[in-house]
# Entry
Amino acid sequence: MQIAFIGLGNMGGPMAINLVKAGHSVKAFDLSQDALAKVKAEGAQAAASAQDAVQGAEVVVTMLPASQHVEGLFLGNGNLLASIAKGTLVIDSSTIAAATSQKVAKAAEAAGIAFIDAPVSGGTGGAIAGTLTFMVGGSDAALERARPLLEKMGKNIFHAGGVGAGQTAKICNNMLLGILMIGTSEAIALGVANGLDPKVLSEIMRRSSGGNWALEVYNPYPGVQEASAATRGYTGGFGTDLMLKDLGLAQENAMTVKASTPLGGMARAIYAAHSIAGHGGEDFSSVIKMLQKKG
Ligand code: NAD
# Structure
């Protein structure tokens, strides 16, 4: 299949490479020459622009940082929709506002282009291994067209509902993750302040009613789990600033539908303070630093 892939960062780069490995012809574009060079070295064709990348494409995949990038590319100065042929399928895997997905999808539909939102969970490790979870919003027909490609980049594919539903599912999950990482950090910090061994306490809670995903595979206390970001000095995971973005999207969404999300709001404020204190680039589990006794 002829595929255009736009946005080749930490996630998009390895996803595009997995499509190349599956035998697809991938024409890739990124504003960063370094990012472009990495996928070119793995067999993708380097496009001179986004407009160039979509020429002849049957499917266009985008993996960009935030709402303004996606809207800007498709509808703004880029006006990429005008360069995409009728009948093409667009898969946007960026984590953005559901309202932006719906706005772009509406314009795409008017131009005879199919659109699905397909944000992912699973981090850079999942992107490299091709084991991402896709949360899809869009029609059954568009999802079935996308499925063979999504299966080359991911392991679990969920159909959350109509356009935007994938984004909503993604922010609900990440709001819960942000909250549970703070709660887990608080509990471990309290135990350690009382002289408990963080490893022993973590194991007790993991096997008790407080057990959760952070305690299973993402312990925020350094040294408790060999493979955790905490043990690597909070590097190479899911950044505080990306978590902050997702918690902001959750709050915007909650305001739109008048939902009450008090813990989500508090979690956003805590990650914002953590980011301002200089930890925006560290893994989000470093939030435990705010809650630990110093010295
Ligand atoms: P990133 O910053 O590493 O990559 C984004 C890429 O998009 C950059 O290379 C940038 O140059 C490029 N870009 C921006 N605007 C562009 C444009 N107009 N045209 C072409 N290229 C453009 O980000 P990432 O970590 O790959 O994340 C991408 C998305 O995936 C985000 O929405 C993020 O929230 C989401 N996500 C990330 C993770 C993670 O662990 N990193 C996990 C799940 C979801």
Observations:
- The chain is about 50% helix and 15% strand.
- The mean pLDDT is 97.
- Residues 6-12, 29-32, 35, 50, 63-65, 69, 73, 94-95, 120-121, 123-124, 238, 242 surround nicotinamide-adenine-dinucleotide (CB under 6 Å).
- The longest helix spans residues 165-193.
